[in-house]
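Margin note: ligand = uridine-5'-diphosphate-glucuronic acid.
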Amino acid sequence: MDAPAKIAVVGTGYVGLTTGACFAHLGHQVVCVDIDIDKVQRLSVGDVPIFEAGLAELVEEGLNTGRLAFVANTGVGVRDADFVYLCVPTPPSTDREGNADSSAGLVDLRALESAAREVGLHVRAGAVVVNKSTVPVGSARLVAKAMGRSDVTVVSNPEFLREGSAVSDFLFPDRVVIGATDRGAAQRVAKLHQRSAAPTIITDPATAETSKYAANAFLATKLSFVNTIAAVCEAVGANVADVLSVLGHDKRIGSECLTPGPGWGGSCFPKDTQALVRMAADAGYDYSLLRGVLAANDEQFNRVVNKVAAVVDLARATIAMLGLAFKAGTDDTRNSPALAIAERLLAAGARVQAYDPAVTRVEGTNIALARDAYAACEGAEVLLVVTEWDEFKTLDVAQLAGVMSALNVVDARNIMDAEALLRHGFDYQCIGRG
Ligand code: UGA
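Resulting structure:
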């Protein structure tokens, strides 16, 4: 390895903490900065507040080797750095009452601007400031302006990691994208990723920023396509698993991100697709295709609700919801399809008893949390699977039949043992099979 770089990472969410811990693992000297003092104190003793495979181990390794430190003071964190990574949240803008309005597609850049301003006060001349936060096209300029430093270069380096596999996605990326007007600075950033041997695309900032939205919009489109083909399969009596296997073997389509489900969610796809529709509209292009992708996703939540409504009267039903996280492998419930579906069931009068192995709290809802899957099923008339946790694949069907008050399963992830359920007298519905 070349001489270790001095790297500061501002923001310790999924992206920032993964970036910091992975760079320390690669031998660099890293300081992570966060304005949340409690979080900094917890991280400084190796207490990682998010559920992410392999991340706690890397944080511990970084602390033990002395290559990773956490501070709450931006000045202290960035003053010696050769590279400063901005990894702060860029949530949907809120309205006057403080409610997030993601459907407007506006992005709240206040955290980014304020971090850039603070970095501008302390960063040393010649450093490269790398923006990893997902930001509308033109934000590299906004960062440069907020910093107000002509002796510091801003580079856009979008992150493509997925929650649940963040560490391996960071260390072994499919590609690295660097947008910069200063090619020398871009090459310095590229060098930090040399070991991954990933294809590296060096381009201008606007193209790098657009590519991030384009990637998420394409994947969301693929998933809405999959879910709508599943609806067609149900209507015509075809088997979606076989249809998608045929598609997945076509190298032009690829077999990843091709699993039907209750609809897609998370902290990125919904926000980023809405933002791209908005950015396009502001630039004079009506992105009707992507609007359709979003509408199909909302429809998918309703299709799951309708499957439940087909077997019980929602106004008086008790529903066992298995899963709350937006996907397996994470405790993140932001824009989770589970919550969207639960809200619709609750609004129709149902009682929702939920269990998720990684989620112990959900705020602002009437969902009742159960200690395990069987407790969630106690007295329920429908078992509804919304997150694809492994442990739901091997539930004891006889035990479920013993505790439920009616034998109905809606498996929105197609993961349960349909034959075993049918053998025990369950009515079984899934996605994409008539
Ligand atoms: C997504 C992208 O996959 C990352 O490349 C990107 O970096 C990230 O957003 C981001 O912008 O930060 P993530 O939100 O962690 O990553 O989750 P995914 O694994 O892509 O899943 C998104 C949603 O699609 C989930 O609700 C998941 O259950 C659903 N999904 C995914 C399916 O229903 N079927 C699939 O085959 C794959």
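The CA atoms of residues 175 and 199 lie 5 Å apart.
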